[in-house]
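Dear support,

We are seeing what looks like truncated structure output for some complexes. This example has four components. We would appreciate it if you could run it in full and send us the complete token output so we can diff it against ours.
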Amino acid sequence: MKKLRLGMIGGGPGSFIGAIHRIAARMDNHYDLVCGAFSSSAEKSIQTGNELGLNTDRIYPSYEKLITAEKSLPEEKRVQVISIVTPNHLHFEPAKMALENGFHVILDKPITLSLAEALLLKDIQERTGKFLCLTHTYTGYPMVKEARQQILDGKLGEIRKVYVEYPQGWLSTAVENKQADWRTDPSKSGIAGAMGDIGTHAFNLAEYVSGLSVQKLCADINTVVANRRLDDDGAVLLKFENEVSGVLMATQIAAGEENNVKIRVYGEKGGLEWQQADANTLTLKWLDEPAQTYRTGGSYLSSFAQHNTRTPSGHPEGYLEAFANIYKNFAEHILAIQNQSEPKKESLDYPGITEGIRGMAFIETVIASGKSTQKWLDLKKS
Amino acid sequence: MKKLRLGMIGGGPGSFIGAIHRIAARMDNHYDLVCGAFSSSAEKSIQTGNELGLNTDRIYPSYEKLITAEKSLPEEKRVQVISIVTPNHLHFEPAKMALENGFHVILDKPITLSLAEALLLKDIQERTGKFLCLTHTYTGYPMVKEARQQILDGKLGEIRKVYVEYPQGWLSTAVENKQADWRTDPSKSGIAGAMGDIGTHAFNLAEYVSGLSVQKLCADINTVVANRRLDDDGAVLLKFENEVSGVLMATQIAAGEENNVKIRVYGEKGGLEWQQADANTLTLKWLDEPAQTYRTGGSYLSSFAQHNTRTPSGHPEGYLEAFANIYKNFAEHILAIQNQSEPKKESLDYPGITEGIRGMAFIETVIASGKSTQKWLDLKKS
Amino acid sequence: MKKLRLGMIGGGPGSFIGAIHRIAARMDNHYDLVCGAFSSSAEKSIQTGNELGLNTDRIYPSYEKLITAEKSLPEEKRVQVISIVTPNHLHFEPAKMALENGFHVILDKPITLSLAEALLLKDIQERTGKFLCLTHTYTGYPMVKEARQQILDGKLGEIRKVYVEYPQGWLSTAVENKQADWRTDPSKSGIAGAMGDIGTHAFNLAEYVSGLSVQKLCADINTVVANRRLDDDGAVLLKFENEVSGVLMATQIAAGEENNVKIRVYGEKGGLEWQQADANTLTLKWLDEPAQTYRTGGSYLSSFAQHNTRTPSGHPEGYLEAFANIYKNFAEHILAIQNQSEPKKESLDYPGITEGIRGMAFIETVIASGKSTQKWLDLKKS
Amino acid sequence: MKKLRLGMIGGGPGSFIGAIHRIAARMDNHYDLVCGAFSSSAEKSIQTGNELGLNTDRIYPSYEKLITAEKSLPEEKRVQVISIVTPNHLHFEPAKMALENGFHVILDKPITLSLAEALLLKDIQERTGKFLCLTHTYTGYPMVKEARQQILDGKLGEIRKVYVEYPQGWLSTAVENKQADWRTDPSKSGIAGAMGDIGTHAFNLAEYVSGLSVQKLCADINTVVANRRLDDDGAVLLKFENEVSGVLMATQIAAGEENNVKIRVYGEKGGLEWQQADANTLTLKWLDEPAQTYRTGGSYLSSFAQHNTRTPSGHPEGYLEAFANIYKNFAEHILAIQNQSEPKKESLDYPGITEGIRGMAFIETVIASGKSTQKWLDLKKS
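Here is the complete output from our reference environment:
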């Protein structure tokens, strides 16, 4: 099996998400981490690079150096995929430069600081023909994929209602740490706090699972903790296509909550429910029939669920496996293209630029709605 | 122990809620059912009265007859409390007549057809000095009472967020039966369908548990099933006093859902969660401490929870017991007054006219908001 | 509807189970409590009788007086069913006297102090032709009845394995109260403590649900708390007919446990699981198919489950309702016989003398096994 | 960071556990897989080695070749740790040869085919001074480690009761596949089927969490599926030191069950419960206090739980992470020794030869007990 050579921008000392990306990349043995610019501090970059056992000459002090230097390496040695795990304000430029220099890109969400940047990035991506993957982790869970397939297959009948929620409690107080600092700083996070950090995940999950696009929304956006500069709480009424309605709740001040993203979708014939706290279970509920419990690893599952599962049923797979599924499918896509073979449809099922743009449109619309006295705002063109 | 003589208006053949009220009345042996006008059909009224073993001369063909005839009986024989379990359009007149003729009243929710009627009823009640009890069942659960006490005691700190939801699926199709018919008929149900039937329960639960009043709201109200004449689905953004925000979701088209009313409240220090499907559990969640599971019957519970519990912990109490708690507390209140003793504070903890008026204000505001392009509407004066 | 005239022996001040029996009797309006001998203290008997609103002349100072006096009343006034809710050592004599004087009997479990007494009681019951009902509460739950029907209908295929457990924690310390005192006193409780009090429930549940009889067993019986005179903990390997094996665990020293009786049964094609803590759910598990969640009130349930349910799905029914189902079915049986009509098969589904004898055989065998060095002991002839 | 060079014996095409070991080894970046003898078929070994991207000259056709060839390589290139993932009958010889040639060993459980082999292996291990790690996965879960710490810290008081269970359903029928075949073949699996495959896990978990040693047992061992050559079901009464009693249930014929290993331990003051299906939760139950829910990632957890966690609370970690914790701690131990530094106590917390010997003593005693008419058998000397 061929492996892809991976580089990383960001993910230095104290980064939570950088470590997650690296585990995800290692999980299925599709990537070799060969280089990195882990921090804007050269020293810290070297520290992390050393800890990861990289060759010293491929630990870079900046993303520009990384891209330039790698570009000059022989093709068989040069990095192939660059993973960008920096705060939001450092997404667009490195992604642009990476794509334009011939590298595939993995980006943490939200894709950019603004919708305008996201739309630009799409042009660049299309022009360069390189691939871009966006780590909306929750779509990586096998039972989320199963949920989507059940709905696509029409099992629930026409969809009528979508509830999605993402409660966290870790910003209930004026936390000061590396994770909290940039997320509550508009210059690094953009115009949205909670709505950007976790609201976009909830939004993406709702569109992915239901197969429907949000068309307009009405938002209540709050900053609950004193002196915080961005929203830390919000609830949104949604209107999808086909007059389907929905509710999105995302908060970071639900004291005592961990990270329990949850989705429920109801159609004419039945409903379904999934939540991360019980990630290996998908509940299907039926009119006048007993509910059913679908479980990761079940022999009765769709090819999409099975493709994204590593163990037999009863061996719980979690967040890291879901994250790794995104890396895995992206690698399978790239490798298939390299081999001039047809990628499996299951491999193509990962979030990318389209989902990134939808997320930015959501952020800009939801924040505008929070400030508006008008009830419904159309989702920004995306 | 003295028992109260109970009469019933409504609750004839095929009535679900009439049977529930009678079980609730029997549970704690505080009432003797002595008379009834169970149906507008004299024949059906007699049928039900006979089944219940009533004396034939106290089975009446109409509520007017019941009230007039009972009024003429000697005081020691005459009915004392009249339970009205008819559809909404038949609440106000019988309640008014009962109060004005000297009887205490138990009413099913919503209290009347309109806010105006509810406000009138308050005047009547205050003038007559008789008591009125409204069966908002969910506040009868011991763990709901515990939730309220925890918040009143400040355990969660200042409240910040309230989520309440009430999903049902039984109106997912164009059901035709006695239960569905009147609930979807504006002449019997009033201006609201789901919002009146279950939205008011959710609204009452949110105000009761949080101890906070809703001040304005923004609603998305839908009629999902074709040709239905009233709403069957809705979601509402709420603003309580003290800038506390909330979300209320109530639907009767969530196919596969039963009746799982659920509330979550978050404060500065922690949060709590209760749902009817696991009615004997109250979860308390804390910042940086393990969550706690409070259970009906626990020795550590408040006097309000203990007062409303009949069995030791581990013996599940359910919907009928919650319903019976409302009957029980109402009886204890009346009996204490009869005995010229001070009622226990726990006995006074049942819903009444104030909650009824709040519910009607909610209904009228939420339906107006559903039709409005204005984002926030103030709750109607109540 | 005719009601049965009910009398009670035991159930005076401080009795937990007496109050439960009375709620159960009231729930469905099939009984009128007309007399009682609530305590061996005449004073306490009068106190309880007064609280219950009985006529003074039908409050008796002893069970003998009750039976004799009621016998002498005119038939249309005389008590018809006598409920005996005393500690175990006061089961046999009152039951015998009641049956021999023409009264139907409801008895708390275990049926008697010894297997010999239970066998005698069977003779008496058969000779007198009166009916006897034993309150093995857990078989009264609708979902337990559904479990039994699923197995009887062959849905699981041939049964292979039965696990039943009954963990409590309330005797973890040397508790001193009315409930604990007699249960740990061999002169009142008999040769078994936990095995008699809750082990018999677990045993009854296992035989009822599986439809299989235990043939031999091997027990580990312990007295964990110092100075306790009877067992407070035990685990038992079971062999049913057809070489089906099982495990029964019952303990009263599982600190922190409430009362969570649970059963799991596995057959060739699938398994099922029910536990009291989630009493309205029955889980059916299948080979290579999603598990199913059956819920009280579901339209798809057997007539046995539906017959024993009072509310639509989603309105939790609990312990008191399960208890009341036993009273209800017993009443329906007696009333059908009185009316010379055929009782419904669902009404006949309540525990009686046969289950009582099985329980006593279990107690005597399990205690003997606990003391034996022989591995397997045959269940005593019953 | 230095990485360890890893080799693998077994784990060729179709091996479930080989793939799991490799993911576990990759997860934390402590190992580089450098060589393997993946199958007794040279062709298959090459196939797997190629898929894994190994250098062809380090893909071997037999474990003997692997050990001999690697031994001859320069020390800085030579494999350091050999992971043996073959069926049970191929554990002892490769492990012996690996240890004697200077390699550390990771072994799948049960450690050997017989207790005698296990005791021999211990001598060899002690003589060579190399380390041995046994992959009893379930002890790798952070919440299992927390459970052990809570008990060691005396939070539950003196332990009184241990329940452990391991229900599976996948051998409910006469399955024929690579996984089932060797597990039901005495020449490959040894004298035990289910008791060796999963009973040893349950036994290990019970001793690990409780901190107590089993001293004697009484077993009911069954072969339920016709023509199966080894046990597929069993239940065991346990006696630990200090007169603590317990029950172990392990079955592979519980149709519909996945893999839900579960443990409950009760002491004087409280109890605890953990199950793999909800692996990130540890429930602590208390006398007269609300139960507590400890969660992976909680800031209040012991250093042992925290050391074995990769993500913040609310990001579920699963089976692969638990497995990886064993690899991680073993690596940290070896690397500390290589660096002549003191290993952290948390790194030393992995199963090894002692646990392996206990497991073999359990297997031999439990199978003997299954055939015995004597009630209690002492655990074989270990």
